[in-house]
Amino acid sequence: MLNKRSKAEWFGDSINVMILGFLSLIMLYPMLYELFMSFSVASQVAKHRGVLLWPLGFTLTPYRLVFAEKTIISGYRNTFFVLSIGLVFNITFTSLGAYFLSRKNVMLFKPVMIMILITMYFSGGLVPTWLNVNNLGLYNTLWALIIPGAINTFNLILLRSYFLSIPDSLLESVFIDGGGHFTALFKVVIPVSLPAMMVMILYYGVGHWNSWFDALIYLRTRDLWPLQMVLRDILIQGTDLDIRGEELINYEQLQETTKAAIVIITTVPILMIYPFLQKYFIAGLMVGSLKG
Amino acid sequence: MAQHLSTGYLTRQGKLQRFKSRLVTDMKHNYTLYLLVLPVIAYYIVFRYFPIGGIQIAFKDYKPALGIFGSPWTIHYGFGHFIDFVTNPYFERLLRNTVLISFYSLLFGFPAPIVLAIMLSELRGRKYKKVVQTLTYFPHFISTVVVCGIITQFALSDGLFNQIGQLFGAQPVSFLQKPEYFRTIYVGSGIWQGVGWSSIIYLAAIASVNSEVYEAAALDGAGRMRRIIHVTLPHIEPTIVLMLIMSVGNIMNVGSEKVLLLYNPSIYETADVISTYVYRRGLLEFNFSFSTAVNLMNSVINFLMVLGANAISRKVSETSLF
Questions:
Q1: A1, A103, A231 member nearest B146 (Cβ)
Q2: What is the distance between the alpha carbons of residues A271 and A206, in angstroms, rounded to a whole number?
């Protein structure tokens, strides 16, 4: 390394540090704004002009209102149902497919592989897919958010490439002991692929957590809506929250602070755990890019 | 001659026979393996290939009561819906909006993570670099619905954007009600969401540059800019080209989700794209066949663009997808 920095180098470094600092602020500020807003007192919000740098007063009323909101509660319940049952389907189906595709010496390997790869480039598109799901009787059930998306072909290929890297000798020991493919998959392959399984759980999990469009097209009943669909209704469609019995002078501002509290409650848990999961996400990204 | 033919025929027959017996042996030997993959194959047939078969309604006048196969073919030898779409008054607008949104996303969104990665790699403080990196990943973990919810809130005439604008003396504008702002909002928020996350792949490529090369360049008196242009950029070029092919191939493919969340009839002029039109005509107005035809046409063009981008890049550089 060079010990001395020239003046030009030093100047360039400082500019770089400042620009990146400003950028970080832009990345963070929208969430900070929501955080400040969620603790603010409605009457003060009404008077305030300009950028928020701290909460205006302090109140927990918005949070109390959020927890009284029935659709948020049922949204969380439905999302957890889809997330947990969905992940069981995702992991099982993806592992089965990836295991088969990682076996050499099977005659029908190629046709199955081609059949699966084709779907990465061709799909039925919106209407035929929707008609198919309806014809199968899944319309207006939570299964419509679980079964049609059981396998993501990209994830399948990703997991397969991980399975391929497992040494054959490990599997042979199972077969010598008289075990079959089921034993090999569940007793050896999956346990030694825990990092890859973690990546799968994260990828599918984030997918379920963020998904709302399937709910929009398949679910007629509000009680079945997952969290993101409820959020769309409140934050974007502008459906007013039920805040009767509160101080109605600052009704609009209270709506606003309560919406901010909703953003915080549904986003902060994810942002808190993600630094711990970051390495798995990046690991998956890297494997994916090598294959791509 | 005759003998030749007959032996050839026999060998072919024999080959088929041998293939069959090999397959039977294989099936017997690996039957648990086939049993294991059966649910996966069933899944692909039912949930992927049934809808692909359903595409035929693009050439028919689909009536739910008659079913996909029973519905009659439509006029113009089955191409009636395609002709309807191309002669549709909205055709030009949809095409323009789709291509322009993609084009601007590519123009501003593609270089952004590369610039960020280079800036990050030039940072000396390790802790500071880590903090900046983590903060730039932040928006990637916020769901699309919440991001669009925040945008909707900020874009109101008394929202944050206008509060800031007023500090500089600007008149309040309801940004999501004015067609001229939609593309800026769409592209800008897209960069905000994705720039940090997309920079990871370039950072990894930069990290693999041998530090001796940098030191040699510095000894030769190369300044920062020359180091970046002559060492860093050539080194990450294959990654850049690969990412570019994938993006160019997708230029006709503007996803419907974010547009559906942000648009409204007053800004259809700039915001309505093919995928949102497919959704409205298909699932809100129940023009199943027409919507499928529009979607199919879009997919075919998109696929040709992927092939084209790939072919060009194979000619120009050595990198290609397939």
A1: A231
A2: 12
